[in-house]
Specification:
By secondary structure, this protein is an alpha+beta fold. The protein has two helices and eight strands, in the order βββαββββαβ. The strands form three sheets. It has a four-stranded antiparallel β-sheet with strand order 4-7-1-8, with helices on one face. The protein has a two-stranded antiparallel sheet with strand order 2-3. A hairpin with a 7-residue loop joins strand 5 and strand 6. Helix 1 packs antiparallel against helix 2. The longest helix has 14 residues. The mean pLDDT is about 90.
Amino acid sequence: MTRLTGSALRVTIFIGENDVWHHKPLYSEIVHRAHKAGLAGASVFRGVEGFGASSLIHTSRLLSLSEDLPVAIVIVDTEDRVRDFLPQLDELVGEGLVILDECEVIRYVGREKKA
């Protein structure tokens, strides 16, 4: 199991829900690549409303239901491991925003594996 405490780096990727990579959701490809790279974890969050560089507002409100809601993928690991993963994001993210933040991991505990 990966151990992670103390100083870390968080990468957050903002894309659209309908963004794809080889006919597969882009957010899923990013999560699977992060897992394959051995990163500590990744989570996908679906937004209810937002806009980006194109200035087009996407919303989940009933009167203007969008099929391309904002999605954020958050990955946290050591600085070296996150920076080693960035070239894959350069390959995958054609439109969107990728940001890095320093953070401190207070607790990182997984489930016990059943025998």
